[in-house]
């Protein structure tokens, strides 16, 4: 009797463990390999040309999402919202004056929309700012903006686990 109850409890614990649950709900999400800047955004050309935010953001989203059991598939061109799950991202605003930490905190704002077979199932606005952290005086503007984008990637990956409409992520 004891052995039978023990085995049932062990089986139930393994079946409901985070690893098993993550595998059970694994899904593919299509994401553009380069996040575009919003057409209405006003962002310094130096930031656009030097900081590589457009490629860093999807890489961080992919890295954090996959650790949560969500497979992110990159597309070289803007994915269409018609087939499967598609996450459309755009960088809405970047506050990043030159001069690294000496010119003040930096911030990045991102907008995202999640579609499932053409139907919008969620959307968010996300914002993160950073003063540079430890040894900020030795960091440049792009490094500090990279910290913002890395944290946004984690925020977005967490949101993908339970997407909702009109979500506000990060420092909102």
Characterize the structure shown.
This protein has a single domain (27-170), classed as ABC-type transport auxiliary lipoprotein component (Rossmann fold). The protein is built from 5 helices and 6 strands, in the order ααβααββββαβ. It has helices spanning 2-15, 18-24, 45-50, 53-67, 141-161; strands at 27-32, 70-75, 85-95, 106-116, 119-130, 167-170. A 6-stranded mixed sheet has the order 2-1-3-4-5-6, with helices on one face. A hairpin with a 2-residue loop joins strand 4 and strand 5. Helix 4 runs parallel beside helix 5. The longest helix has 21 residues, at 141-161. The N and C termini lie far apart (55 Å). The relative contact order is 0.17. Residues 9-25 have low confidence and may be disordered.
What's the layout of helices and strands?
Layout: H1 2-15, H2 18-24, E1 27-32, H3 45-50, H4 53-67, E2 70-75, E3 85-95, E4 106-116, E5 119-130, H5 141-161, E6 167-170
Parallel strand pairs: 1-2, 1-3, 5-6
Antiparallel strand pairs: 3-4, 4-5
Helix percentage range? 25-40%
Main beta-sheet strand count, sense and barrel state: 6 strands, mixed
Alpha plus pi helix count: 5
Shape: globular
Q: What is the count of β-strands?
A: 6
- Helix-strand topology string: HHEHHEEEEHE
Q: What is the straight-line distance between the termini?
A: 55 Å
Strand arrangement within the widest β-sheet reads: 2-1-3-4-5-6
Structural class: alpha/beta
Q: Beta fraction of the residues?
A: 25-35%
């Amino acid at each position: 009797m004891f052995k039978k109850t023990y085995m049932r409890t062990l089986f139930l614990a393994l079946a409901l463990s985070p690893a098993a649950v993550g595998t059970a709900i694994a899904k593919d999400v299509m994401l553009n390999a380069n996040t575009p800047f919003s057409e209405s955004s006003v962002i310094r050309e130096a930031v656009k040309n030097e900081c590589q935010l457009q490629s860093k953001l999807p890489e961080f989203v992919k890295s954090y999402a996959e650790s949560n059991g969500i497979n992110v598939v990159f597309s070289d061109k803007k994915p269409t919202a018609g087939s499967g799950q598609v996450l459309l991202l755009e960088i809405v605003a970047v506050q990043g004056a030159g001069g690294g930490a000496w010119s003040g905190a930096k911030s990045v704002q991102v907008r995202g929309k999640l579609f499932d077979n053409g139907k919008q199932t969620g959307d968010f606005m996300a914002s993160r700012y950073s003063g540079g952290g430890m040894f900020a005086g030795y960091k440049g503007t792009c490094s500090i903006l990279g910290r913002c984008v890395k944290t946004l990637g984690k925020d977005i990956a967490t949101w993908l686990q339970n997407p909702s409409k009109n979500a506000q992520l990060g420092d909102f």
